[in-house]
Amino acid sequence: xxxxxxxxxxxxxxxxxxxxxxxxxxxxxxxxxxxxxxxxxxxxxxxxxxxxxxxxxxxxxxxxxxxxxxxxxxxxxxxxxxxxxxxxxxxxxxxxxxxxxxxxxxxxxxxxxxxxxxxxxxxxxxxxxxxxxxxxxxxxxxxxxxxxxxxxxxxxxxxxxxxxxxxxxxxxxxxxxxxxxxxxxxxxxxxxxxxxxxxxxxxxxxxxxxxxxxxxxxxxxxxxxxxxxxxxxxxxxxxxxxxxxxxxxxxxxxxxxxxx
Length: 260
Fold this sequence. Notes:
alpha/beta; six-stranded mixed sheet; 54% helix; 12% strand; elongated; disordered C terminus
């Protein structure tokens, strides 16, 4: 995607309600716009998170809740994630650790206070970016596209080692697949492939893929596939080829000692 088109989409994409109109205007798949919006929203929330955790703001939220304001209403008023605000309030009310709060958010029915339990469940249900259910959906979609990648490698008779196999060999940070024999795509050597069920923009690429350099150092040049598309400016690293699908044509396969 051209950078100018991406910037125009981001500017117009104020909420999820804008997605159908923008999809029609730009002829862009719905899932691509969902990914773009999700990254934009997460970036905004990340920038605000420290502010909402300030002691004076936490005290303000807890006091408002005790006076009868519901969590979802507060979240809408401050334009913050309902689920994350629920975490802040629950942690403060019960003096819980981060791990303890995470367990409660995954099992809100464990809360004894009926009002708090109901409002936390309401906040979780209303949050389409930071709730446990959304996390599970992202994980499942990610696994689905990893499977698609493996199927395409199998169909092309390209041998590879999976992330699970690499971890059993002792590697901590691993790509989704490491090719047993490097392949050449568009004149570039590819030794490993990372699958991303997302749209790739500079923010996502730089914050989510800080490990790519370690892949290059350990295995050599590789490839990242953003299945929902990417901004064309990402393809500026000679060691990391960025694509939006598995290449239709693999130019050649060659032994490792000939790869460099």
